[in-house]
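Our preliminary data section would be incomplete without showing what the modeling component actually yields. Below, a chain of 1893 amino acids is followed by its predicted structure, encoded as tokens that our downstream tools consume directly.
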Amino acid sequence: MAPPAKKFNSKPSSERPRRRPIGVVASSQLPLQPEDDAPDFPRGGGTLLSRAERNEAREGVEKDFETEIRVLKKRKKEKRVQNKNNSTEDDLGLLFADGITGKLPRFANKITLKNVSSGMKLWGVIAEVNEKDIIVSLPGGLRGLVRACDAFDPISNDEINGDVDNSFLSRIYQKGQLVSCVVLQVDDDKKEIAKRKIWLSLRLSVLHKSLNLDSIQEGMVLSAYVKSIEDHGFMLHFGLPSFAGFMPKQNQSEGRNLNVGIGQLLQGIVKSVDRSRKVVHMSSDMDVVSKYVTKELKGISIDLLVPGMMVNARVQSTLENGILLSFLTYFTGTVDIFNLDKTFPSSKWKNDYAKNIKFNARILFIDPSTRAVGLTLSPQLVSNKASTSLVKVGDIFEQCKVVRVDKGSGLLLEVPTEPFPTPAYVNVNDVADKEVKLDKIFKEGSSARARILGYRHLEGLATATLKTSAFEGSVFTHSDVKPGMVVKAKVIAVDSFGAIVQLASGVKALCPLRHMSEFEITKPRKKFEVGTELVFRVLGCKSKRITVTHKKTLVKSKLEILSSYADGSDGLVTHGWITKIEKHGCFVRFYNGVQGFAPRSELGLGPGSDIHSMYHVEQVVKCRVVKCIPASHRINLSFNITPTRGSEGELIKPGSLVSGVVESVATKTIVVAIHESSRMKGTVVLEHLADHHGLATLLMSVMKPGYHFDKLLVLDVEGNNPILTAKHSLVNSIEQIPAEISQISCHSVVHGYICNIIDTGCFVRFMGRLTGFAPKSKVTDDRRSDLSEVFFVGQSVRSNIVDISSDTGRITLSLKQSLCSSTDASFIQEYFLLEEKISELQVSDTHGPLLKWTNGFGICSVVEGKVHEIKDFGVVISFQEYSDVFGFISHYHLAETTLEKHSVVRAAVLDVSRIERFVDLSLKPELINKTKEGSSASKTLKKKRKREAHKELEDNQVVNAIVEIVKENYLVLSLPTYNYSIGYASLTDYNTQRFPITQFSHGQSVTATVMALPGPTTGGRLLLLLKSLSDGMETSSSKRAKKSSYDVGSLVQAEISETKPLELRVKFGSGFNGRIHITEATDDNSADSPFSEYTVGQKLTARIVSKGNRTESSRGYHGWDLSVKPSLLKGDAEMSKSLSSEDINYSYGQSVYGFVYKIDPEWAWLTVSREFMAQLYILDSSSEPCELLDFQKKFYVGKAVSGFVINVNKEKKLLRVVLHAPPASGELKEADSDRHSLCHLVQGSVVGGRISKILPGVGGLLVQIDQHHYGKVHFTELTDAWVSNPLSGYQEGQFVKCRVLEINQSFKGSVHVDLSLRSAQDASGHTSTRRVDTITDLHPDMAVHGYVKNVSKKGCFIILSRNIDARILISNLSDDFIENPEKDFSIGQLVTGKVLSVEPLSKRAEVTLRTSSAVNAPKSNANHLNQIMVGDIIHGKVKRVESYGLFISIDQTNVVGLCHVSELSDDHVDDLSAKFKAGEIVTAKVLKVDKERNRVSLGMKNSYIAGEEGSTTPSRQSIDVTVGMNGSVTTSEPSLSQGSSEDMKNGSDVDHIPLLADAESRALVPPLEVQLDDIESLDIQGDISESVVDVADDNEEKTDKKTKKKAREEREREIRAAEERLLEKDIPRSAEEFEKLIRSSPNSSFIWIKYMAFMLSLADIEKARSIAERALRTINIREESEKLNIWVAYFNLENEYGNPPEEAVQKIFERALQYCDPKKVNLALLGMYERTEQHKLADDLLNKMSRKFKHSCKVWLRKIQSLVNRNVDGVQSVVERGLKSLPRHKHIKFITQMAILEFKCGVPDRGRSLFEKMLREYPKRTDLWSVYLDQEIRVGDADLIRALFERAISLSLPPKKMKFLFNKYLQYEKSTGDEQRVESVKAKAMEYVATLD
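Predicted structure:
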């Protein structure tokens, strides 16, 4: 800022001189000069200017001043409002320099979000260093962001440029480092100030923008980057290309030991400047740098000032919030109160800053636009060090000393931290929850409790709050949130991904969709409404992202929380949720991302059970930690909470050999009872029955319980269930199979089985859980794209160990056949052994001789047979001894012999198939002669010759063989050089079971190795191993693609090689394969079995229609698709080519044919063409339940099916079909649109359905009629006839036949379907089965049936049909008296009655269950009424006790009269039920007889009975209105349900609705404000004053009471007289009569409400509303209570008929608040909610009332009463809130009534503690003693009562109060009847009187 003295150039200027802005020198600056070189100014103000120059300059300045003043006055006039009072806010919000008028500023400059602007230079401290940005803490508590690109200037160094994206920022900058920065940008003003961001730059090129080599002087402090590291020092880069710098290493080492790297930012002092080389020599001694003070230079520009620069400053003056300093001769700056040199400046801080005192200060900020400069005197910053934070956000400090009170601003606190205290400032808005005056509440030196809100890193100042609300709750910031914490939060947003919730402290969290409920939520917005407060549990908190759960099990879990792997102690039981389910187990997630795995053995599953049948993803489970390895983040879990323990003798381990008996056989699992254990049962899956998958399937099909397994290997133990295998490869090599990784050695070959196949390879398992992995490159010798084509899960394999990693425990395998080929004949040996077992099992039921046929067919033996049949492919031979055994001789083995049918032949046996009872024979001479030679010798010589022949064969001998027969799995070979011995060799190996088989032909020579000589273990066969198997399979490099001349449309001659249900496999040409799809067999696809006429080997003509798909075959692949359709065979090739791509234009309702290729329980899958499939849903297949049950049997694979298209998915090439023709009005649906439409169903359709749910009560059934759609069957549509329990024959999952009654679609798109299970022909049958469809079908006296829908004390409702309900009043339920209908009538009960009345407009009907004589009984009552006269004294029995009076049955009549509560006694009766009981005999006086309405009014006052007329009348009560179920607005008791009608209340009054009440009907008009039981009447001025007599004012109170009582009685007389005058007139029966009555009494709410009731009885709702509006306009504004009655009636009207009711009531409520007392309106609405049991709305209203009327004792008591009545927790917290909110003078009243409430409804001990608490504070309040005693007397504990009386009479009170206590004590003892105690009380009273003397 400019100095006080101004200088001007000596040379005159033509331009008018201007006053220099603050903070800069004149435009023509003097060269920089040290202060010592400047000319001295004499004390008298000497100058170098002449007088003329001074005068000229003065005149110019004065003119400028005058111009500026005029401009300022004009601006002030335009903005008079803003600048009227020179407001403090403007002064604080704007930055300023030296005032233009020369006035000193009021306030020091402060940086805020409002005044920060681009180009400002700020000093800051780095708070965070991230990968892509830096967060800087700025002055004033602001925070700025620095992008990575703005954090440094690029240096031409490849290393730095390459590391920018990684950790380069953290290498340059560190947290806590002080930096100078420049503001680049501030977010747009349109954004919220709290969300605006300040973008900064740390580039030296921006900071040093005005720096040049000429302006650099020795001693200046500059910042620079390390550009390179040389031998003797560092080359520096200042961000500018014009000059460079150098810093010697020795100088750098003189200071601190810095870890300097390239790009590092350093500060140093300029030692010298080499201007010729443009090099600045620096020294970085940090101590010198931190203490260096910038020298005062003349003519320095503001652009050369840098934040952090230390200057010598002088105090100019003190400001309101800081001081004004001058520095560097030309500049002034301000220091705000938070940057003074004292950490805790007191309120008298200004005394420490006298004018001209010098300080060392550092520049805090510079604003070039306003020339404003901010300084700091903070000791930490002056020493160039950032302050260290000793507090954390959220910390609470109890004893914080108030150092200074800034009126209107806040408080400065001294926070007690170690090792030194921390200053904290509390803003005025954070002092208290409500507005307070600081100077009155807080004094300097006092203590306060504070919570830390934040920390200003630059100033070292904490911000705090003293608000009480800040200390509530366990969560204040994100750091307070801990995993597993249970919190309450409010839903603020709901989306498809979940809900955003907000905690009370403002912290936000995410509740993911899957955690919003225990079950899957389809519509989250219905579950979570915005504004709803719910309870959550924190799942995790990463960074500032918090996730919570609302799963009920997790929220309410009492188990320990597992939030880290270190917490996972063995045996810990906790809750988690399943995230993934696999075949081998479940993955379970816990809190904070912790995850564990539960293997299948620990899931608690039975043998063969499916995991998905018991568990599903996101299910909450209780689990036990079995083992936890924190280092590797692994947790093993078990769902078995109690560990299973078996006895040592029965412990079976993996690797054990056991035997067992088959106990049960499932589809793919066998359960075996193990002999070695009495309790354990193992399982053998299909894949582990044999090494050959085909034989394993066959063995499973014949397996039966009782079969004995001799050897089974235990692979693993899951819980108590051993996993067994019968594979010979594993059983026989048990010693070689490893169970641990230590047992494996590299390059060894071991047996195992495939447990999983993925895209990248195969997993092979050995013993237990030991698993290896074979990568895709090491699985086969040639690369195959799909491993699942050549391997299957469970396949036996031989694996070569390639590598073992001891660190990771990984085993790498190879399955290549070239490395893993078999070295023995075990594979084919097991094949023949299994074949023998299967054949034995096939004939096990016949026991015996059937298997002896094999003895006659020894290998190589000659047998005799007869030619049975001659085929094209060979000759079939039959045998006389074995009629069911056939032989076969192929053309190759006929040896050119011609045979005739029935001729006898002798042939050599080559192979015997035991399973098929089939023998392969040969007529080749060399084979027959070999056998003949053996048969000519004796038996002994025969055996000897065989041994001699086989002596030449040895194990592992390589032999040449001839292929005799090619079987599916093996070859039959002959060895010519060994007497034509017959051997057998497998075509496949363990690893090649699914590989394409090498083709062999008859007579082909092969090389094989002898593996096993004939013997018992080989089934008497010679076993060989082909050389091709041991050398590996043929690789892809040896295969060449065969070129062909075939094309689509070509006709070929093909031979059938294989037949399948849905296709024929054919071969044609030179080794080409193809298929004929079943849909290509005929033109119409209607044939049931189109392939029945085709056989293997048959030749046919076909046309190629397309190139096939390789992936469609599992073994080999067919290269072409062929067709034998007659139409295609006749057409030309061009036409056939057009069919290569199928037509996909299917239309809705189009008929299609297809064949079933797959069937499951829900769907039948059809193939309708080569490419298109169709699916048929089970419920669309039939409407008959029996057919639906046999769905899978009816639709077998290969069955031809015709259907109709209703949906098409062109992308998936999938159709949806139904069997019945859909309606013509439908349209084709794309993709999944069928989820929202039932286009194929219409009204009247008969469909099949499945019961999904049986609804409770009379809800009926929910029936599934489609995959995604359900319909509802009404309770009356379940059976044809009216039966007592129509649901008895139905159960969930049952198939039913339904008829569609109605289909409706809501505006939201959901479809509602009404169904019927009744047969259509009975729907309109005779009366016993007929249902009433419309209200017009009903007429009086019509007999009807119905089911009870609901029952109340006033009657019940029944359902006559799905559209009509009827009402039955209690008087019409039975001929006899029914005291409690709920006991006699149950929901769903069948009743029969007659229609009494029908209201077609309102669609209401009324029914009676009474007989005709009983219905007409009331007419006979008239005779008895004539006998009853007014004034008669009658006797009778109490029939019913109500809160408003007694119903008395008069003796010797059938008349029931009402004795109103006001006519029961001369004294007030509190509880009628306690004084009168049903059946009690009473005497009463007849007060009035209303013959027209059959009513009798009675009185039981003693004065009546004695012949005296009472002078008092009951007090008038306000009117409460309830809208009845029959459409009438009626007056009702608060205890009566909202839905009951007035007719039900009055019992016999059925025919009409009363319009004006007679005298006794006032008992039916309860108080408008429903009192809290009898609590509200017990206030200190009411109930207490009745029982406590203040002796001092006794006479005055008595006089006052008498006056009030007399006035009240007079008022009641007037009211009664007026009402009786109204009753003497005719009852209005039309709208005109009501209008007349209203004109006479326009302010009577009673008449207006009756008028509304009349209109509702006519079902005219809108008219009733208009009457309510008229009433509100007509009633005088002074009659507030009358208007309030109308508003309440309006509430009830809208609550019943509003659409929707809640919104309609709310609108009326908001209007009522504008005209009536808000508190009364709220209480009235609350009363309606409570009566109608709308508890949620009542709770919401009470919450609002407790905030709005927090000083009302009545409101808080109503809230507590609501909680107590519903037995809800939280009463204590409400009491505490109420005490905090209520004024102190109401505490006694509030606590007293709370105590009474505890005595009556809660726990008396809590009531006693409340009374004791008050008596400790007010021991001489006799009113409290009296109430306390009354409550104890009510409880009835005599010992406690007497002890309390003894305490009371021992008090030192005035005599008159003691007299009252003694009298009360005496009355109590008299009531107990103990004369001795009465005398004792009298004696104590006399003793007290004696003490007074």
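The first strand starts at residue 33 and ends at 34. Residues 1594-1624 form the longest helix (31 residues). Preliminary results of this kind motivate Aim 1 of the renewal.
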